Inverse folding.
C-alpha cells in the first residue's frame, strides 16, 4: 500500500504549524518527531499510562490514541506551553518541585497536563478526589504520595492567588 | 509509527460514511473516539486497510429527549458530553452512576457511546446499562435501517449483530416506568480499571409497592454483558426487602460463570457479583421513593 499522506494545520502552545503526515502517524509521534516537542512522553502507546496526555481544545486526551491527521484544525497545549514564561513555573509545576513529586520524571508531563485540567474543573479537591483524578496516570517511582501533596498544595496556591 | 499502513478518509456525512463502508466492507473500520480501536491498531491486533473517520458527523452526535420521555443518543456522542448533560443524567440515573467508572477523563473526552457499544467489550459498563434499560439500537447501511434490542445486539465476545456494511447510529432509551428506580455499581481494583464485576439494576413497583418488574444486567462476568433478569424473577410480586433481595443475589451467583483472571478468581467474581446485585437492588429500590 502506498503511504497515504495528508496536509494538516494545528496550533500548539499558541504557535501555528503546518505539516504533511502519513495517515498512520499518531499525534504523540507528530508532536515529538515532527514538531520536536519531545516533552510529551510516550509510555505504553495504548492509552493506559497517561504519559502522553496533552490538552486538545482545553481538555486532556491521550495523544497516543489520536491520529495526527485528526488533529487538523485543532489547538493543543503540551507541557512546553504550561509555564507562563522562561523564568516562572506553572503553580502545579512549582508545587511538584517543592514536594519532590517526581523522581525519574517520565510520567510528569502527563501528570501535569492532567492535573492542570483537573484543577480548572475542581479548584478545591479533596485528597480522595486528587487520588481518583491521578488514577489514569501511572508513576512507578514516587508511590504518588508526594504528587498528591503537590496537587493539593497547588490547588491552595491557585485559589489564594486568583 | 505503531499502526500498520491504512488509508484515512474523513467522512463528510453519514451517507458518505455508509457508502464508503459498503464499498470497502470488512477491509474498513469506522473510527469514532478511537479509544479501543487505536490501541488495537497500535498493537496491530487490528489492521484495517481503510479507516473511515466519523468524528465530524454532527448528525449522529448529541442527546434529544427530556427526563421521563424517550431519549435518543447519537452514536458519536462522547462520554464527557453525556456527563455534562444534567437533564439527561437526571432522566437516566444508570448513566449517571456508570459514566464516571469508564476509564479516566482523558479517555472519556474522546470515547463515544456508539464506539463503546459496537466494540462490545463484556467488561465495559454501557453494554450492561443498555441491556438493563432495554435500549434499542438503530443501525443503518446503504440498504436501509433496522432497530435491534440490546439483547439481539450483543452476540458474543467483542461481537455484535451489526453487519459488515452497517453502523450503529443511535441509542434509543425507552421512558422509565412509573414507580421505578435504578442503580449501577461496580468493583474495580482501581478507579477507571475494568470492573471485576458490575451490575445495572432497574426495579419497578406496583401500587402496593411490590416488585412488578426487575431488570438485572452484569458486566465483567461473561463473554457478553449478562442479562440476569430471569434470576431475579423470585422478586416478582414480593416486597423488596433484605430477605427477598438476598434470594436474588444467591440466584445470580448460581447463574453467572465468570472466567477469573490474574486480578480475581472466578469464585471471587461470583461472590462480588452477588454482593453488588444486593447493593444495587437495594439502592434502586430506595431511589423509587424519591422519584415516584
Amino acid at each position: 500500500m502506498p503511504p497515504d499522506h495528508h496536509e494538516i494545520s494545528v496550533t500548539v502552545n499558541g504557535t501555528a504549524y503546518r505539516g504533511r503526515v502519513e495517515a498512520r502517524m499518531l499525534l504523540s509521534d507528530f508532536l515529538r518527531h515532527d514538531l520536536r516537542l519531545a516533552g510529551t512522553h510516550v509510555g505504553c502507546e495504548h492509552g493506559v499510562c497517561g504519559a502522553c496526555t496533552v490538552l486538545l481544545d482545553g481538555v486532556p486526551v491521550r495523544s497516543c490514541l489520536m491520529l495526527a491527521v485528526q488533529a487538523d484544525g485543532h489547538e493543543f497545549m503540551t507541557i512546553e506551553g504550561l509555564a507562563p514564561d522562561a523564568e516562572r513555573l506553572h503553580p502545579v509545576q512549582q508545587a511538584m518541585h517543592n514536594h519532590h513529586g517526581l523522581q525519574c520524571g517520565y510520567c510528569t508531563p502527563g501528570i501535569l497536563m492532567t492535573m492542570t485540567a483537573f484543577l480548572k474543573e475542581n479548584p478545591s479537591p479533596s485528597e480522595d478526589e486528587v487520588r481518583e483524578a491521578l488514577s489514569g496516570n501511572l508513576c512507578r517511582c514516587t508511590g504518588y504520595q508526594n504528587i498528591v501533596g503537590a496537587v493539593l498544595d497547588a490547588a491552595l496556591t491557585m485559589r489564594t492567588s486568583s | 509509527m505503531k499502526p500498520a499502513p491504512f488509508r484515512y478518509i474523513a467522512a463528510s456525512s453519514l451517507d458518505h460514511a455508509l457508502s464508503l463502508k459498503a464499498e470497502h466492507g470488512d477491509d474498513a473500520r469506522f473510527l469514532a473516539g478511537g479509544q479501543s480501536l487505536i490501541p488495537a491498531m497500535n498493537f496491530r491486533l487490528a489492521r484495517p486497510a481503510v479507516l473511515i473517520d466519523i468524528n465530524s458527523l454532527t448528525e449522529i452526535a448529541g442527546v434529544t429527549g427530556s427526563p421521563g420521555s424517550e431519549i435518543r443518543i447519537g452514536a458519536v456522542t462522547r462520554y464527557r458530553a453525556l456527563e455534562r448533560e444534567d437533564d439527561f443524567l437526571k432522566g437516566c440515573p444508570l448513566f449517571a452512576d456508570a459514566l464516571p467508572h469508564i476509564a479516566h477523563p482523558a479517555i472519556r473526552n474522546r470515547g463515544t457511546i456508539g464506539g463503546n457499544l459496537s466494540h462490545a467489550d463484556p467488561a465495559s459498563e454501557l453494554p450492561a446499562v443498555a441491556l438493563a434499560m432495554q435500549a434499542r439500537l438503530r443501525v443503518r447501511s446503504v440498504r436501509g435501517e433496522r432497530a435491534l434490542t440490546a439483547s439481539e445486539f450483543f452476540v458474543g465476545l467483542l461481537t455484535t449483530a451489526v453487519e459488515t456494511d452497517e453502523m450503529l447510529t443511535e441509542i434509543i432509551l425507552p421512558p422509565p416506568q412509573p414507580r421505578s428506580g435504578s442503580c449501577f455499581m461496580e468493583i474495580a481494583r482501581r478507579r477507571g480499571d475494568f470492573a471485576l464485576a458490575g451490575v445495572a439494576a432497574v426495579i419497578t413497583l406496583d401500587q402496593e409497592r411490590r416488585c412488578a418488574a426487575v431488570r438485572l444486567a452484569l458486566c465483567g462476568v461473561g463473554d457478553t454483558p449478562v442479562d440476569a433478569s430471569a434470576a431475579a424473577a423470585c422478586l416478582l410480586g414480593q416486597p423488596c426487602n433484605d430477605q427477598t433481595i438476598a434470594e436474588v443475589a444467591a440466584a445470580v451467583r448460581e447463574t453467572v460463570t465468570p472466567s477469573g483472571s490474574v486480578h480475581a478468581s472466578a469464585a471471587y467474581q461470583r461472590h462480588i457479583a452477588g454482593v453488588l446485585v444486593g447493593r444495587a437492588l437495594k439502592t434502586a429500590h430506595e431511589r423509587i421513593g424519591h422519584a415516584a
In short: Chain B has a mean pLDDT of 96. Residues 266-291 of chain B form the longest helix (26 residues). The interface with chain A takes residues 1-8, 10, 31, 34-35, 38-39, 41-43, 49, 51, 53, 55, 80, 103-107, 109-110, 190-192 of chain B (CB under 8 Å).
